[in-house]
Design goal:
It is built from four helices and ten strands. With 186 residues, it is of the alpha+beta class. It is globular.
Length: 186
């Protein structure tokens, strides 16, 4: 089985980090894999963090391990740190707020989407791979693309911001506070 990796688009990078229970449930998060290459730069030391045991089916495991094994082959970006570094700098898609330290790709199997945050730097975790039910994630991403609606007490629109956007809250006599916002539902 062959897989293709494509750079993360739009707000997909938000799903390569821990999210609320509600967002994780709506997107069909199965769990995530965290890995590093170790001090030899050639190991693959990993930990699986399960979110929903009932989603961790044999079908999921087959598609997930096929994707991971595919990218761990010689010359591919999970083979060793140098391969990951070459891949990341070749792709050149960085998360804007990470100063070029992390790169993101999406790999789809038949039923699942694997959103990978790659960091080729030694001494840090090199991979976070968040695993979602593909149709659930895509549906959530489509709905979140309309932005987060802020309303008044009569449900009239005040303004919208994009998913992951920031608002500033000002309290009389206090410093303004910035808060990042995530899309939950309409």
């Amino acid at each position: 089985m062959e897989f293709t990796s494509i750079p993360l688009k739009g707000t997909e990078y938000l799903y390569t980090y821990h999210n609320s229970q509600q967002i994780s449930g709506q997107t069909g998060l199965v769990g995530y894999l965290r890995a590093d290459f170790g001090s030899s730069d050639c190991g693959f030391f990993h930990t699986w963090n399960e979110h929903r045991a009932d989603y961790n089916t044999d079908e999921f495991k087959a598609e997930f391990y096929a994707a991971i094994d595919y990218f761990c082959e010689k010359g591919r970006f999970l083979h060793k740190r140098r391969d990951m570094a070459n891949f990341c700098y070749e792709v050149g898609k960085t998360f804007e707020y990470e100063n070029g330290r992390e790169f993101g790709v999406r790999v789809d199997s038949e039923h699942y989407a694997f959103l990978m945050r790659l960091n080729p730097n030694k001494g840090e975790y090199n991979l976070y791979c968040y695993c979602y039910k593909k149709d659930w994630l895509d549906s959530h991403l489509e709905r979140s693309g309309k932005g987060i609606r802020f309303i008044d007490s009569k449900y009239n629109d005040l303004f919208r911001i994009s998913d992951g956007g920031c608002i500033t809250i000002e309290y009389p006599g206090e410093k303004p506070v910035e808060r990042y916002c995530r899309f939950i539902d309409n």
